[in-house]
Structure formats: structure tokens, C-alpha cells
Amino acid sequence: MAILEEMQFLERLEFFNGQRLLAGDLQSLESFDREMRWLHNMSLHQPGIGSGFAVTGKKGGATVNISPGYALDALGREIILTQPDVEQVPPVPDNGAGKPALFDLLVSYPPDSNLTPSETRQGSCNTQGTVRVHEEPVFCWARLTDDATAPVDPRLKLLVQQQLMIVLGRISVFNCQLKEDVLLAYRRNARPARLPKVACGVQSVLSKGAKIQQVSVNGPGGTQISVKKVSFTIDTSSAGFSSIPSYFARLRSPDPSVISRILFGAVLNVTSEAVKSFELQLLYSSGFVPQVVPENLVLERVFGFDVVWMGVEV
Fold first, then answer.
1. Rounded-to-integer distance, Cα 35 and Cα 2, Å
2. Long-range own/partner contacts, residues 232-235 (CB < 8 A, 24 or more apart)
3. How far apart are the C-alpha atoms of 245 and 221, rounded to whole Å?
4. Residue in 47, 154, 152, 135 with CA at minimum distance from that of residue 90
5. 66 forms bridges with which residues in the sheet?
6. Which of 59, 63, 297, 298 is the most buried (most CB within 10 A)?
7. Concatenated DSSP letters of 128-169
8. From CA 178, how far away is CA 91, in angstroms rounded?
């Protein structure tokens, strides 16, 4: 975290009536607010594109169009484009072997040396200075290796790895024009994807929460088999799913022999999946039930076990 590493102490500016303010005082105030904002961005967000920065270019074209956008780099600095921009495709015939050359379009935060004055003023005592500078992001084409794994230029490769330069799009160039439409698959989003969401939980199973039924199921050759179905409702509301996930469940007990007795001759099913719950069923052949699960299913007096579940929302 470069900002924290460079910060030797935290200092707030104070002012008093009648104080003479110098340019450095106000610039320090602006720098303090800016670096606190960068620290926030770096700590709570990931580098990438926050919004906009759409890059378009059609096969056969010689330019790509970039829409206004907002992005963050690894230091939390805001990279902002306020007006549409057009970038020329690199004027190369091929990759040197008769195949298209690959390039990534990169964007980065502008260094102070790139800022151009947008307003100057006359001060007292024949002084004059800049009071506003125009900030625009820096765009760069990075030539890629033929296997498209990284930029050829080691300096650009390092900056991309450090996420100080953000990839906006990838192009293939042949005869100084786009061989294909701009490819956007390698862009990184500053907002992590909400899905897939994975959550887990454990619920103890007791007899008072069980439902017991005698049901018939299809057996080999279409024959009907009478089985006892023992089902438990498993509460998953703590996961906060917004749509029905896929559930997976297993039984757990401090005594491994307990699980082997429960599952001997049984089939374990997850059914009735819902946003906040699912039903766990154990199907027993009638011949096994009396020895494994008493008819009144007083499980807490015979053995205890937990249902360990996992839900995956996509």
C-alpha cells in the first residue's frame, strides 16, 4: 500500500482569523483530501473499470472509439475521461511472420508532467501562475507477444501486472487495420462480480423437526418399492441468497459409526430447493428402518448428527 508506506504522519490543516495563507497551504489541503480519497479507493475497491470506457472498432477500420468512463488503478487513483476519444490503430503490417499483430489498449492516471494549464491568473507584485490544470487519462497501445500472454515491452508488462495501467480492449492488426472487431474479454471490473455467491452452514437435526412418510418409488424394471421417507427442513436464510441456489448437503457426527448406521441402506436427497431453505430427505427401505431409525424417530436419544450444507447462487 504505497500511500500508507509514504505517509510518515497524518496532519490536518488548521486556520485562524487574520492568518496569511500561502499557495502551499491550500495545495496541502487539496492533497490531503485527494490522498484520503485514494486510500479509501485502494482499501475498499479493486483496480479496474468502474463505468463507461466502452471501446468500439469494426473489422477493417483504422481507429477505435473510446467513450467517457471512470476507472481506478492499484493506488486508488481515479482515471476519468469526460469526452469521447478516438485512437489510431498502430500502423503495422503484421507481427513479422505474416500473422496479425496483437495490441492491448491501456489507460493510466496522468502524471503531473502531462497536465496542461487551463487557466492562469495575474497575482500581486507582478506574479502570475496557473490556477487550474486540465486532467486527461493517458492512453497507450501495448504490443503483445505472439502467444498474447503479456506486453513485449517489459516496462509496460510490469505496469499492467501492478495494475497501474488498466486494459480497456484488445485488437489484432493486419495491414495497418483491424483484422477483427475489438475484443473486450480482458477488461477488469472495479466492482467485483456479485455472482457466483457461495455460502455454507450447519444445522443440527432433531426428531421434532422431522416428517415421516411411507411412500412408493420406482424400482428396477418399473416395479414399485415401498420406502420410508424421513425429511428435514434446512434453514438457509442466513446466507442471504436472492435467487434459488444449487444446494449440496452431507451428514456429520463426532462418531463416524453414527453416519454409517444412518446411511446404511439409505438414499440421501436434496429437494424442494428455495431461496431460504431446502428439504433433506433420507429414503429407507422398510427392511432397514426398524434397526436404523426407530419408528418414532427419537434421533436425539439414539444418535446425534448435523447437516452440513453449501449453496451456490449463479
1. 11
2. 232/205, 232/279, 232/280, 232/307, 233/209, 233/277, 233/278, 233/279, 234/203, 234/277, 234/278, 234/279, 234/280, 234/307, 234/309, 235/203, 235/276, 235/277
3. 33
4. 152
5. 55, 85
6. 297
7. EEEEEEE--PEEEEEEBPTTSSSBSSHHHHHHHHTTSEEEEE
8. 10
Task: Give me the amino acid identity at 234.
Answer: I
Q: Do residues 232 and 195 make contact, with C-beta atoms less than 8 angstroms apart?
A: no
Confidence at 206, pLDDT banded by 50, 70, 90 = low
Q: How far apart are CA 253 and CA 157, in angstroms?
A: 52
pLDDT of res. 291: 44
Q: Parallel, antiparallel, or unpaired: how do β-strands 48-52 and 69-72 relate?
A: antiparallel
Query: Which single residue is written with the C-alpha cell 430427505?
Result: 281
Tens digits of per-residue pLDDT, 291-302? Answer: 444 444 444 344
Measure the CA–CA gap between 27 and 44, rounded to whole angstroms. Answer: 26
In the structure, how many helices (H) and strands (E) does the chain have? 6, 19
What is the DSSP secondary structure assignment for residue 273, as one 8-state letter?
Answer: -
Q: Where are the domains of the chain?
A: 34-112+132-192, 197-313
Q: Domain 197-313 has what CATH class?
A: mainly beta
- Whole-number Å distance between alpha carbons of 162 and 106: 13
Please tell me the pTM assigned to this model.
0.63
Indicate the burial class of 196 (C-beta count within 10 angstroms; 0-12, 13-18, 19 or more). Answer: exposed
Cell numbers given for 143: 504490443
Q: What pLDDT is stored for residue 297 in this prediction?
A: 41
